[in-house]
Specification:
Helix content: 55-70%
Shape: elongated
Strand order of the largest sheet: 2-1-3-5-4
Structural class: mainly alpha
Largest sheet: 5 strands, mixed
Amino acid sequence: MGKKRFEIIIVAFTAFVSIVSILYALRHNLIVAYGDAESHLNIAKRVIAGLTPGAAQLGGIWLPLPHILMIPFVAFDGLWQTGLAGSIVSGIAYVVSTLYIYKLVNRISQNRFAGTVAAAVFALNPNILYMQTTPMSELPLIAFFILSTYYFFRFLDNAEDIAALILAAVFALAASLSRYDGWLLVMAEAGVILFYHFFHREDYRHAEGNFILFSIMAFSGIALWLLWGFLILGDPFYFTNSPFSAKSQQQGWLLRGELPTYRNLPLSAAYYAFTSLEIAGYWFSALAIGGLALFLLKEKGPGKLLKPAILLVPFIFYVVTLYLGQSVIFIPGLTPDSFEYNLFNVRYGLMMVPVVAFFTGYLLSYPGLALRGWTLVLMGIQGFMFLGQNGPPLTLKDGTDGLSASRPIDAERFLKQNYDHGLVLMDDYARTVSIIRTGIPLHNYIYVGNKPYWDESLKQPAKYARWIVMQRSDSVWKNVYANPRTQRELYKYFNKTYTSRDILVFKRNDNIRLSQK
């Protein structure tokens, strides 16, 4: 069978698997199980349909490219409300990732069987299968990571292949605008270029030219994001200094003594290694370790160390961020039982699945290796895991039962049944209620990104809003309900229509006219 035809078969098969998985997730309401999934959808939707639409709605915390890719699809309310707008983007990323894992392993090993095994290990991983149904940003990052790696390896094999270097830079740029993991990929590839030319003792100008050519493109994403933060939000490092940043969120865990990896390098490595094993599978991880050993023994030249160094960038990134307190993972088996939660952010381990797939495939390229049949059996077992024979994937558990889960609440039902018209003031960052589940159009919400509506509403709640939804300790609660001055105005113009332990809903009394101020 010809090379192109075989690749078409891979694309067709993975597209079929992706669609089936998405339809399954849609039927069981799993696409927007993660709270972050709806947030990603809403960011994309607000760019074109919010109260104050525009590019500024991309914000300054999450990197923008996954949201930009969703914009053509969230324009359709049905795709936005179901989450399918994000599924389309993640599903395409899944198909592209599988194809290029095959191409990468096949190119290095010159063995189609090895490439097929690597593609199958990735494509049939239950956690990958679930996450590619969601609007989360992991699959787009994985696709750009693999694409950049594929072309970068081509460059390492032939330093005269400038087209490969340019494509590696372009996809590294895309990775750097998808998740912050991509920033380390850009830096690592730039460093490898210098080391590669130093090893070959090539002309200084040749090395300098390749480094500058790569860096101008690859680092431009990081530079643009810093510039965006400065121009739009007044701080180039808003993504890490803001009270909405992951770093700020982690401070709460640290104060409670529930950030176990902070300033503890061995435990940081243990947490991410254990998470990766759980996500990628113990058997395949063991095969991958054997494949890495074989790679180091068999390969020649600087690529022997430089290629694994690129592939292991995600491992380094997460160990460092766990150590610095920039990220947190809770996973059963390591997280102490005394912690309030023991399942959170395990999806970070997804980034090691392509690495495990690569080295598993490479191991199976060795002539006469007697593990081929066993690998196929293990792949079948792993594929059936998605059907629930051994329980749901860990990433799905996190999305439905972990701290990341978005759980329906009674206040959403109340709003769905009683909302009539008008603007709704709510702290969307606190995820007081799910906008999608309330059925209220997104452009009828006032949230922190709607200037000047938000700031003015916190001082004069009746100026724009007909409804106010607040959750204990969120921004609206603190600034409107707990503030004596605004509380007087709140009770003057609004009636409390819903009360629960943590959520209050107020509706404007239409019989009272707002006094002029």
